[in-house]
């Protein structure tokens, strides 16, 4: 059993008991599982079966959790490093307290190291270590490192979102402080090797039979101490850099969408690739047009006579002269017509449609001639009551 076993194996889960379980509860859980998976209870077992493996696992968990001292060590180990290797590699990636994120990969032979989990001190102080001879295992040479991913946002007009646009984006990213070149030390001074950890950035801590490595407390895992901090970055070695880039936003983006522009993030270090840029899109609404996926929408008013008799009407499009739409005789209110190819540009360059919905207008003011004509119309159509069926249906329920 190794330190790594302690971090990788959840003995409580194996026995199916909570972390707060009493010795009695652990014993009970173990007995039940042991009976279930014992080789004697599984005749014909060749020794390689699932139940045998399970039996071993259960026994191992019980060995540790039934021994008060070992259980304490186990609990402490897992509290110290979180549960599981992924857990502490992740925790190491987040910069804290102005120090450099610590790379636990070095301590455990690279196990669980995640790509981009964080800066390695060796990247930045590689040269220094080599000259001073205070090397440490791995990471002492300048390694290529991928640039940071950056978040940004942009507000587009409705038309820009539909057609695509080139926009200027001001990006702020963290990079090595330009004043001290990332050393964190005031001009004319150099950081010194931390005497506590002798530059390794790691400290040992003994827990019974096990020795754990954790970031050195004195140098916060940097391996170096700065006596006269750089006034600009206050010793952190990190600075902010701002730059403006031109970015092409593709046609057809929608409000609330987040798009990824590959390699438009922070530049890489030592020849590493640039990070990606994520842009949160906001789109201003249009006075006339709406969006429905790749289609544009519009509501077009028509007169009662146009709807009843049929007509050719002009419909505006987003860019260019209005198009003519023929609406047939007897068009009901709310019917939608499709004007092909006048919508949003798709990824392949083709376009969606314009969906034109007619809205039949009721005249608000009538002159004598129009009133007379409508009264004649009413008399001519007096035969049919449009509500007759409705009233009948309402009664029959
Ligand atoms: Zn600085
Ligand atoms: Zn130290």
From TrEMBL:
Q: What does this protein do?
A: Participates actively in the response to hyperosmotic and heat shock by preventing the aggregation of stress-denatured proteins and by disaggregating proteins, also in an autonomous, DnaK-independent fashion. Unfolded proteins bind initially to DnaJ; upon interaction with the DnaJ-bound protein, DnaK hydrolyzes its bound ATP, resulting in the formation of a stable complex. GrpE releases ADP from DnaK; ATP binding to DnaK triggers the release of the substrate protein, thus completing the reaction cycle.
Where, per UniProt, does this protein localize? Cytoplasm
- CDD domains reported for this sequence: DnaJ, DnaJ_C, DnaJ_zf
Is the Zinc keyword given for this protein? yes
Spell out the protein name for this chain: Chaperone protein DnaJ
Which keywords, in A-to-Z order, does the entry hold? Chaperone, Cytoplasm, DNA replication, Metal-binding, Repeat, Stress response, Zinc, Zinc-finger
Question: Which residues are noted in the entry as Zn(2+) 2-binding?
Answer: 194, 197, 216, 219
Show where the CR-type domain sits: 164-242
The scientific name of the source species is Planomonospora venezuelensis
